[in-house]
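Narrative of activities, Objective 1.

The group set out to show that a structural description can be obtained from nothing but a protein's sequence at a throughput compatible with the screening campaign. Below is one input-output pair from the validation batch, recorded exactly as produced.
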Amino acid sequence: MSTTPPPQALAADSPTAPHERPADDGALGWLRALGPRGRRAFAGAFGGYALDSYDYFTLPLSMVALAAYFGLNSGQTGLFTTVTLAASGIGGALAGVMADRFGRVRALMITVITYAIFTVACGFAPNFETLLVFRALQGLGFGGEWAVGAILVAEYASAKHRGRTLGVIQSSWAVGWALAAIVYTLVFSVFDADVAWRVMFWTGALPAVLVVWMRRRVQDAPSAVAVREKNAGKGSFKAIFQPDLLRTTIFAGLLSTGVQGGYYTLATWVPTYLKSDRGLSVVNTGGYLTFLISGAFLGYLTGGYLTDKLGRRRNIWLFALLSAVCIVAYGNIPEGANTLLLVLGFPLGFCMSAIFSGFGSFLSELYPTAVRGSGQGFTYNAGRAVGAIFPTTVGFLADGWGVGGALVFGAIGYGIAALALLGLPETRGKELT
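Output recorded for this entry:
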């Protein structure tokens, strides 16, 4: 017997039926407006992205120990990030097509299972080459999770609150980052460094619990199901390169490249910068990261609010400028001024995260429902793959410039993002019907 709810029940959760939603005023109006099914989708996407973040940061936090264990130079350690992000471009693009063809939730579960399995596998790697392969395979799942989860929630969210709702989803990245920093501090305090990095990767099995819950509780938005059934699940890359969408795809890819090139430069190299260039201990590095992560969490929430108030483009322009300024300042703090390093960590984390808050809503609004997964999955993750050049470049420059000096290269990424916005329209208030 079919378990599909009657049309009346589906309409109550549909983004096309605002008159049937609960009041969407007040601080939590965005959450009430999602409806019961939308809130379960929100919980699944929030948890998936938080654990995606956790599994990603097992590597940057363990980078110094890995370099010592395998005898790696800065260029080789930077290569870990490159293969992760390059593979994530492939995985994210494929996940986007799967989301259009087979459904958002099913694609989301596949991505979570993939990144969890290969994060754990990294902990068993016997040499540099094997770890590099496992990290690349982890990137396949890592790449798809955010794009698919953001689309799932965007299709439930109201146009009025979509930016704020997706901004809160983005904030889960900081939650996962914070959890990874806490576990890192505990694990590296208890175990010898030669074992601790393996333990960090083994803790990446956590997402398996989330998948079991999602399989039972989370469903696609009715509007997305209707479009998929009408089009017989024909999402593809070809459609997003047709004349009517080609300009959007090119400039959205450039925007993603710039923002992620700047972001992953910082996410990859700040822990190493704090330990190697600034001489901080494991515990002190965790303390400094607390300021950075706290700023990131509030930045996601603030950016989500501003992307609804100012518009998608203005929010990104504002924080592209501020992020570039913060990178230059952070990488050039004088020796001995570690208190200033601590203080500047907060605005750095705030700005480099606030710029991401509008991405989920902006990219979802740029594409029609039938190819939304393909469009968002490709542009976000192609940008991530090309943006991988930035942290690798920093790795090779670090031997001569120092990590702090090389971090300035990340500011170039934010300049690319600002220019890419010139080719994209403002989409605030657009209905995803």
